[in-house]
Amino acid sequence: MNTDDSSWWPMGDGGDKIEGSQATARQTAELLRSVISQQRVPYTNQAGALIDAVKAIGEQLIAANPVELAVGNIVRRVLHIIREEDLSLTTAAIGGLNLSAVSDDENDDDRDGDSTLSAAAVAAAARSTLRPPSLQTLLEDTPVSAAVPQTSSSGGDSEGKSKSADKSSRSRKLKHDVIEAVNELIQDIVTCHEQIAEQAVEHIHQNEVILTLGSSRTVLEFLFAAKEKKRSFRVFVAEGAPRYQGHLLAKELVARGLQTTLITDSAVFAMISRVNMVIVGAHAVMANGGVIAPVGMNLVALAAQKHAVPFVVLAGSHKLCPLYPHNPEVLLNELRSPSELLDFGEFSDCMDFGSGSGSPLLHVVNPAFDYVPPKLVSLFITDAGGHNPSYMYRLIADYYSADDLVVQRRATAGN
Amino acid sequence: MDARRVSQVVPKVRQVGFVTHSDPNPPPQASRAQSVPIESNSGTPSDSPDFSPVMIPPPRHHSENLSHLRSAAVAVPESSSRRPMWDDRVAVVGSYNPGNSLLGQPVSPNSSEVNSEASTTLGWFGRNSSGKFSAGSSFPGGGFDLTTVKMENFTQLEGKKPEAVPERGGGAAVEVHNEVSSSTAKAKTTKAERRAMQEAQRAAKAATKGKGGGGGVEVNNRESSSNTLKAKTTKAERRETQEAQRAAKAAGKAQGNKPVAAAGGAGPGNILRQPSQNRDDPAVGSTIAGSDRRGGDRPPERERKKDVPPPRMQFDDQGRVNKSKKRAVFNQPEAKNRVELFRHLPQYEHGSQLTDLESKFLELDSMHPAVYKVGVQYLAGDVTGGNARCIAMLRAFQEVINDYSTPPGKTLVRDLTAKISSYVSFLIECRPLSMSMGNAIRFQKSRIAKLPLTLSETEAKAALCNDIDRFINEKIILADKVIVRHAATKVRDGDVLLTYGSSCVVEMILLYAHELGKQFRVVVVDSRPKHEGQALLRRLLAKGLSCTYTHINAVSYIMHEVTRVFLGASSVLSNGTTYSRVGTACVAMVAHAFRVPVLICCEAYKFHERVQLDSICSNELGMLVLVLVR
């Protein structure tokens, strides 16, 4: 469906092949929403029942394609939503909180669409925290300003009030609230491009030269947003072998009136000395700030570092993965068919595994992803604003609950 | 004092060594000052760049020496007139040669043997200095000594022959030397080659630090020269000599010392064994330097200015472009949408030229068919790769020279040079020259220009063809052999070697190492649009090498398992940067990031004195269509 960011994973859950981490994330969220809505909830421990149901499905989904980290991210996000809603309902039912705390929450709970923050703050006040403290929850007034400016764009202030309204009828409300929140999440995933693109004018200026690799819908929107704001700049597009999605991106950019130059991947180093900024999409962003990106990205990042060019990664929040990578080049990678690199007909004699004695002479390596270590990344631009790689783990703490990480870890380890 | 001056002059000297092509004979005096201290270490016998297959050789300097040889009568008087004392020295040098060889090499009683021996060592030094771009400083002085030594030899060998013959005889002698160098001095050539390779390697690493790299080179060079002599002069010793020099100068006994000094200068061995002589030697050097400086420093300065390569044609200069278009043999359609960044480079619509050129075949009556053929091959991409293109061009020129007859009323030297120039501009139209071809052409032209007027036409043609053969053999084929032999020693069992694109030298290295029975794996990294690696892959597989193939994007994936990276180069520039197929820098960069050693394999004749900071200053643009079509 759409060609978001480099990822093109066949998924088992839609019947059709689903490509792109954005599409995957959206479909996962929709699937989980229907799971939740169809789940019968007992009177006691409703949240526990929902969590179990989502976990069971989630494990299957993750097992279907462990490399598509967006699936796991969304499952965790949904689990987190359930926990948060449950907490907020519980605390609301207890009703021991003064209004000021709630109103404080409302100031910051519009930060994300999923409306979890107010509940988190309440929970923190009520009892020991569910999750590690974050900048927003701990230091509400002082340093938040750095991250706040972008938050005005995301509309999510309505549910805080609705939540505070339905304190009494929590038994029925939980499921409803969760589904509401998941809808918000889906909405976020769908609109993450626009939210990222809104920040484009802050980063792209007149007469600059931008380099990108492969094709990413986020990057396309980002560049186009800057173009719409009357910025004139040039774009170099590295084609991104072996899928050559850069060709598509270049075509699209030209169609939208951007001055575009298509180059081969090998020419990246040659051209980067004239580039002002590298802007690329990602497949996933790990908790340490490392990036899983289409193959060739490490090359670009190294070249950018060599020439001191800022390397900017655009990533929707659904790409934030709470896991720390270990040997990601191997474990979070996929080796694709050699036919993309070599003509089977031409080299069939060398690649014949069946008849040859011993090991074949020729191996063809066609990995799908590169891992870009955090030190090569200058900036992340997510729908929640710009962040340093070292800040990623903080951001992740806002989106995920620590309990789910453990669960997921076991789940992924099982796969 | 002098020592300080020396250091100041060094940059110039370096240029002299490096810009080899034109500084042919830097008036020996020019850098005598610096050369002496070092030289004394490195041994006077520096000479004949002719021998080294590998040498950088500034073809011209090379030829220059040769010409000295040939027109010995002319060259020597000149030098001697400048410095009378040299005459003495010549004699001494001659007598000292054997002693010299005692140090490093077996003594041979036979005078001709001695000759060759000396010349090989000389060649060796020469190679060291020039091969490293260096500064070697031994060079200028060496050149001088060389001529003198040569003279000696020459007179020994050819003295009785009539005037006209010496030239030929000189050529023959050179041939012999070559033989000697290739056979007996194999080890040395490899050493020199290795040095050159290391140098290139280092240079590649230090690409950004042009200045620093140069310094490193110099130091290295000195070390190498001393090492090669086995004189093993340590720093302390060197300093000692310098101090001695200073002291000697202060004493002002220059006159009295001269003869002794000459003796000292003759052999480095003397320095080690006889410190007293050593003391004198620098003194002489300094005095010489002093006297030379006054008279001799200026002219080289001017010459040097000429050496600076003229700025390349900038294709955004409309006037010049139009001018060159008028001269063009066939019209090349300009690309419709030119890339802004590359305005200064020619951007043509490729594809149509071939037919255009073919249709003009009959009109181009001035074009020699061999050259035409090569041009078409370039254009069609049938002949690619620095070495192949260079050889094809030289072979074509050989045919041109064979078929050449001087038109009435013209001289061979001028007419042939003009002809070659026109052919070259035709070839440039077909495809921009590679650096190696530029060097080869320069060599060719200088050979023509240096042709003695006394030669008959047939003799001249034979000599030129001979020169071309020699160039191909020494600078390319033999150089490759040396590189291969040396680089194969860098391959160890269990290695995983990565190479990018298709470099013929690297391919030879891999095959040779495989023949040696080394167990290793090869990773062939390839990239669009040419996919040259696939052809290499096929050839390697046919020989039974175990290969891994991947695209350049995945190079950081595969680099984890790689233990060594071998890369070819189109040229090594004088600021230490390597100029090679697009993508090579990416591979080298990734290898660096993964702490994998990178070895650049480049014949020394591809070294070039231009400097370039990035790939945009000067480049060759391929067909735009190739990027779009998968």
UniProtKB/TrEMBL annotation, chain A:
Keywords: Initiation factor, Protein biosynthesis. It comes from the Eukaryota. This is Translation initiation factor eif-2b subunit beta.
UniProtKB/TrEMBL annotation, chain B:
Residues 198-209, 244-255 have a biased composition (Low complexity). It holds the Pfam family IF-2B. GO terms for cellular component: eukaryotic translation initiation factor 2B complex. Residues 234-243, 291-320 have a biased composition (Basic and acidic residues). It comes from the Eukaryota. GO terms for biological process: cytoplasmic translational initiation. Residues 1-65, 159-326 are annotated as: Disordered. This is Translation initiation factor eIF2B subunit delta. It comes from Citrus sinensis.
